[in-house]
Amino acid sequence: MRKGIIKKAAIASMSLLVLLTCILSIHIYIVTRHKAPDANTVALARIDMKQDITQADADKIGKWLSVQKGVEHYLCNTSTSIIIFSFHPAVISANDVTNRMCATLHYKGVRYVPSEAEMKGGCPVATTSISYKAYSFIKNIF
Fold first, then answer.
1. Burial call 4-27: b when 16+ CB within 10 Å, e when fewer
2. Cβ(94)–Cβ(45) under 8 Å?
3. Residue pair 76/58 in contact by the 8 Å Cβ criterion
4. Which residue spans within the chain are E strands per DSSP?
5. pLDDT tens-place values along the chain, 142 residues long
6. What is the DSSP letter of 68?
7. pTM of the predicted model as reported, rounded to 2 decimal places
8. φ, ψ for residue 73 (rounded to 5)?
């Protein structure tokens, strides 16, 4: 009698574990697959200013960015002369924002685009970790 209960509990536990693993795998696949940007997609971009900017300049840039269609939020760092903004890629591109800002406000700035090596090194999950190995395994399945 007791072995029957233990056996049923073990089967139920293993079935639940397999079910949850399948659900997690499907979730990871759906979240990490590449898809075209839509109206809900928000991206970040960075502009490196080629000149020092003061707080007055940052306010002027911020005021300009806040009225641009598709730009959602911005941060201007006067100590590093870096501007970071969030935008909707379906509405406007980061290059358009950068070019228009520099042309309209007469500042010298360039959009920062990370190199391939920086993109590969930017993942917070170490390639030797169990999480990365599980992710790679699941990614290769699908």
1. eeeeeeeeeeeeeeeeeeeeeeee
2. yes
3. yes
4. 43-49, 71-77, 82-87, 109-112
5. 688 899 999 999 999 999 999 999 999 888 888 778 788 889 999 999 999 999 999 999 999 999 999 999 999 999 999 999 999 999 999 999 999 999 999 999 999 988 888 777 766 556 667 777 777 787 787 6
6. S
7. 0.64
8. -150, 155
Residues whose CB is less than 8 angstroms from the CB of residue 73 and which lie 6 or more positions away in sequence, other chains included: 85, 86
Asked if residues 34 and 142 have their Cβ atoms less than 8 Å apart, the reply is no
Which pair of tokens denotes residue 9?
């509990």
Tally: H helices and E strands in the chain: 5, 4
CATH number (3.40.1180.10, 3.40.50.150, 3.20.20.60, 3.30.70.100) of 43-117 reads 3.30.70.100
Q: Are 86 and 44 in contact (CB under 8 A)?
A: yes
* Residue extents of the structural domains in the chain: 1-33, 43-117
How far apart (Å, rounded) are the C-alpha atoms in residues 116 and 104? 31
Q: How many of the other CB atoms lie within 10 Å of CB of 73? A: 12
